[in-house]
Amino acid sequence: MAIAWVLFTIMAAFMQAWRNAFQKQLSSTVDVYGTTLARFLFSPIFALSYLAVLYHQQPVTAVVSFSTHFWLYIVIAGISQIYATALMVKLFQQKNYAIGIGLAKSEAILAALIGAMLLQEHLSVWGWLGVLIGAIAVFFLSQGRKQSKLSFKTLVIGLGSGLCFAITSLLVREASLELTMLPFLHRAAWVLCILIGFQCVILLLYLGLFSRKTLYHMG
Questions:
Q1: Is residue 43 within 8 Å of 124, Cβ to Cβ?
Q2: What b/e string do you get for 125-163 counting C-beta neighbours within 10 Å, with b at 16 or more?
Q3: pLDDT digits (tens, 9 = 90+) for 98-125
Q4: What are the residue ranges of helices labelled H in 64-183?
Q5: d(C-alpha 123, C-alpha 204), whole Å
Q6: pLDDT digits (tens, 9 = 90+) for 74-102
C-alpha cells in the first residue's frame, strides 16, 4: 500500500507539472480566467465517471445528504481554488515565474499553520518537522539563480496563490468530514464532483457575462 501511494504521488506530481506547462502556453493567447476555466472545464466528466465506477465496485446504500456547512465549505473552497489558479496563471506572465511557482508551493506550510491556529488541528512532532523541511525547501526555491532578483509582485502573487490553495485543501477536508454517512473514498468522490461542477458553473457564468470574447477564443 505504501508503494502504491508513492507511485500515485509521483504520477500526480508529473501530471501537475505537465498541466502547468500547458497552462503557461495557453496563457499567452487566452486571458487569466479563460486559462483558469481550461483547468476545470473537462474535469466533471472524469470526476463523475470515477464516482460511478466507485459506486459500481463498492456499492453504498446510504442516502447522501448535504448540510449547510457542507455547501459553505464547497463555495469558499471552490472560489479559493479559482483565485489560486488565476494567481498561478498570473505568475506565468512574470519574468521570474519559476521562483513564484516555488512560492506557490507554500500551500502545505500555510495549511498546517492555518489548521493549527483556526481549526484546532494538531500535528505530531514529525508533522511539524515536515512543515519545517517544506519551509526550507520553499526558501531555497524562492532564491532562484543568483542573478535573478525576486520582485515584490512575484512574491505577493506566489504567496497569495499558496494561501488560496491552502484554504482550499483545508475546506475540502472539512466538507468531506460532513459526509459522515459515507466511506472516505465515496466522501472524497462526492466532494470532487460537486466542487469541480461548482467551479465550472461559476467560471462559465462569469465569462458569459463579462468576457464572451474569451469563450469564443477557447471554442
A1: no
A2: eeeeeebeebeeebeebbebeeeeebeeebeebbbbbbb
A3: 666 677 777 777 877 777 777 666 767 7
A4: 68-92, 97-104, 107-118, 125-143, 152-177
A5: 39
A6: 999 999 999 998 888 887 776 666 666 67
